[in-house]
Amino acid sequence: MFLTNEDMIELVAWRRKLHAMPELSGEEAETAREVRRALSATGPDRLIGDLGGHGLAAVYEGAEPGPTVMFRAELDGLAIEEVSDLPYRSQVPGRGHQCGHDGHMATLMALARGLSRKRPRRGRAVLMFQPAEENGAGAAAVVADPAFAAIKPDYAFAYHNMPGMPLGHVAVAEGPITCASRGMRIILTGRTAHASMPETGVSPVPAVLKLLPALGTLNGGMLPSPDFAMTTITHVGIGEPAFGISPGNGAVWLTLRSLTDSRMEALCLDAERLAAEVAAETGLGVEIEYDNVFADCSNDPEAVAYVRRALEAEAIPFDTGDLPLRGSEDFGGFGKDGSRIALFLLGSGENRPHLHNPDYDFPDDLIGIGARVFNRTLRDILG
């Protein structure tokens, strides 16, 4: 075991410190400072900050030439009010770490401690603390940052904790792991009128009533079919909260999901075409906006083979689970840059609250398990 009991006590305390200080995507300045402080104690050969925002990478060099292997954790929390009586519960109103990114960071810090005592024999290890995963912007921003080119990995690994799976059990597979998704806003513009004379205006109500069922017709296929497509209405707004005004504007928000990026492009075109047709029929202007754009995440077979080898060596149970997931993870963005990637799921217990529930808390037992998988994978590739 490359971690001592004292390491684990300190890492659990550090994870709980992070849990109490969550920051939203793009706002992780204080979290990044805390990570930098802890990383500095492990003596990395280089620390690269401000990657794609508040991202931070620690580099540990081997003595001989070899590949670059990256391990990723996320810095950001969620806009969720924590509901718990934990002594280390969030101290930031309306913010929480209900996705477990605090635990992912602690796992990477465990790996940093191992690297502080034993560098890889060859190549280099990169520990990437990535910003803005929750809104899908972080991985793409890191990859696009000119400073990232100097540490671009040959292999990249990450995990996500997963309630509903047995504690410490791993799900991993080749190929698609999580879906592409994006938020779509359909903005409709007409003309207000007096509520007693609605015929003198152009109301978005008829268009919205047509769009809500029509968008559902774009759904199709079941995972893992590449034809899988899913639309979920998340918000509808019409006019102002007033009794004397017939509304002149409206908006429909929805999330689009697909197994692949190419299927997502087709789904977006279909949704845009439908919105334009309905707007034209009802005399409205229409604009389309996108946000929270996640690429698909597809595991490389060679990278997965390394993860499976590590799991076998560490006697950690694993299977292919229920992959791929309908949810999204922006780790796939690193694979778009040519790296061989592998994302796996690490069970956080069958009877725990689900991710993004207001009472979710990352199980501390996973810090050591995740670190063992990462460390074994690192040593198998770099020695």
UniProtKB/TrEMBL annotation:
> What Pfam families does the annotation carry?
Peptidase_M20
Q: Quick one: which residues bind Mn(2+)?
A: 99, 101, 134, 160, 356
- GO molecular function: any one? metal ion binding
Supply the InterPro entries for this chain.
Amidohydrolase, Bact_exopeptidase_dim_dom, Peptidase_M20
What is the superkingdom listed in this entry's lineage? Bacteria
Transmembrane spans: none
Q: Which cofactor does it need?
A: Mn(2+)
Coiled-coil ranges (or none)? none
The record's keywords, sorted A to Z, are: Hydrolase, Manganese, Metal-binding
The name this protein goes by in its record? Amidohydrolase
